[in-house]
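Feature request, filed as a ticket because there's no other form

It would be nice if the structure record came with a short human-readable summary line next to the tokens. Right now we just get the raw output. Example of a typical job, pasted below so the devs can see what we mean:
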Amino acid sequence: MPLLVLETMTVLLPIAATIFLLVSLGWWLSYAGMTEDQKQILNKIVAGYLIPVYLFSNALTADLAQMFSLALVLSYFLPALLMALCLTLVTKQLLAATILASHYSNTLYFALPVIALLLDAKAINYALSIIIFNTFFVLTIYAVVKRGVKQEVIGLLPFATIIINSVKNPIVASLYLGLLINLLFNGSFKVIEVAKDLVALPVLFLALLSLGVSLQSLPGNRASWSWLGIFNKLLLFPLTVLVFSYYLFELDSTVTSVLVILAASPLAINSYFFVGGDTEAELLVGRCIIQTSILSVISMPLWILVLNLL
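Raw output as currently delivered:
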């Protein structure tokens, strides 16, 4: 056991250091004087082009049967639904924002680099189905709870709006397009594997740099800690996903590792824009983004250590 822990830490420390340094560099560049135009250009290049192209190439070469395993999808979203239901019993204050802060992971800027560095490029295929459904699932839960708290009637229009906005997202659209072409041509694009692997690290490194830039730009009171959101996001949610995936659905250790890394990643930055117009919710979500991003430097290595013991 001590030898296994030592070997795990030997692999993990360079990865954690790389993530920390790249995010810190992005934060410093933003703090040191990047203009708003430069920040927007970087974000547009990364989120609007590089990551969609990278995910498109992954979807194009993915094993569809492997990717759309029902057990894989349920192992991630059943715990999320269960936690959302539990939160309705625990708190009523800012309930919708707390549920959002507890579940919506930074899959693109944080989880994908960790998976690519720790496991291998093929393991990202397991994450694609979660990425496809994640935004729609979380925004649907958020819209339902928000309207329920306000005692508003929940009609079909909010769901239609969420679906349209999800499909219009370049990241989701690139995944759907890649999957459609993969399905039509029966996975005849394996030659792209080599090119995809060559561009993976530069794209993911730029994603981490962009994450640091975005974190520095977030407003909000950073002195107050949002412990319920932090506890759920970094500990309870990934723990529940681990139990469901490895013990209930008996998925193998690689798939379990991908799902737990996705669940244990910090709160997604774009969740701040989902609560626009609600000052208290913006403050809560803004705090959670910053605080989970900082604490994940400690929590993620611990989760990876646990996963290596499976």
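Something like this underneath would help us a lot:
The domain at 35-307 is CATH 1.20.1530 (Na+/H+ antiporter like fold).
The radius of gyration is 19 Å.
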